[in-house]
UDP-glucuronate decarboxylase (Yeosuana aromativorans), 328 residues
Amino acid sequence: MKKVLITGAAGFLGSHLCDKFIKEGFYVIGMDNFITGDKKNLEHLESHPNFEFIEHDVTEFISIDGPLDYILHFASPASPIDYLKIPIQTLKVGSLGTHNLLGLAKAKKARILIASTSEVYGDPLVHPQSEDYYGNVNTIGPRGVYDEAKRFQEAITMAYHRFHGLETRIVRIFNTYGPRMRLNDGRVIPAFMGQVLRGEDLTIFGDGSQTRSFCYVDDQVEGIYRLLLSDYLYPVNIGNPHEITIKEFAEEIIELTGTDQKIVYKELPQDDPLQRQPDITLAKKLLNWEPKVDRKQGMTITFNYFKTLSKEELFKSEHKDFTSYINK
Ligand code: NAD
Ligand code: UDP
């Protein structure tokens, strides 16, 4: 049985990846320090014979007993609100954490896939974004802590490949959504759905003309799985190219949920990318992959998930207490 280590396992994407690899017959070791994740996301795997969990901060030395075939490094705050609140931890997990995991991969002769992001393209001047675009990032802006950590992560991963001959894979993930996102992580889908469920107005930042392209989690996980098992070592975009403005998206949510709540406009955060759409030509050709779940289907599943949350969870203003991590 092949063994895979998944970091960020208690998070949104990490927990779905654990499910996928178990379903495909792997032995899965999940690792997380719960800084933005939730134990609840892994509860259903607790007694699974092919799953174990290690609570650990990956910015500290990582020790795993026995052989390891694959590593998926998904530990990192991922929402703009989270990485603004914990900027130093964000930089550390992308740099020191990645370095530790590359070292572990080298020691175990394991193949490693790292989770990069469309944010490496910054506020893109090329549209849609293909893998050969170098990006337009403000290194010292508020999003720089995340964007530059991810760019460093790609650079050190390629260096380990070139210098040590490590088997590496890099996925550039575009906005992905689905069940197990944290309701109050500030990302637009949980934000709008939480507002609908609490009876609040929907908050659009800026005039809502900025665009995003949303990918359902099952499609994302399938793309990542295929990339890991492929023999391609350069970055690959995985996302859904169906682009929409945030204003149209808010209207879609209002229609989907049948609410009569209003839209209110707030200031656009600094360096918020004005447009984003993945060019997935490479993934289609290389992995024979493309997204299958359309937005209406995916949003319905996601909204039904948020509807199952308790009133207490719904009205908590923030689930996460970051105080113990600040300036560590
Ligand atoms: P998430 O916040 O739900 O999950 C991240 C997980 O990493 C959390 O469980 C958190 O506790 C854990 N973590 C953070 N720092 C850690 C550390 N130092 N040690 C151990 N665990 C740590 O976010 P997500 O949406 O699931 O994102 C997962 C990965 O995918 C991230 O690397 C993110 O950059 C990348 N990504 C996600 C998206 C998306 O749309 N969801 C887009 C681009 C990239
Ligand atoms: N956004 C919004 N209202 C919200 C939350 C987000 O209009 O309550 C906007 C945000 O400014 C951005 C887009 O929605 O333009 C997507 O934001 P998200 O935080 O989900 O991810 P990003 O793609 O910016 O990393």
User: Anything to note?
Assistant: The domain at 183-213+242-276+294-326 is CATH 3.90.25.10 (UDP-galactose 4-epimerase; domain 1). The radius of gyration is 19 Å. Residues 7-8, 10-14, 32-37, 57-59, 74-78, 93, 97, 115, 117, 173, 175-176 surround nicotinamide-adenine-dinucleotide (ligand 1) (CB under 6 Å).
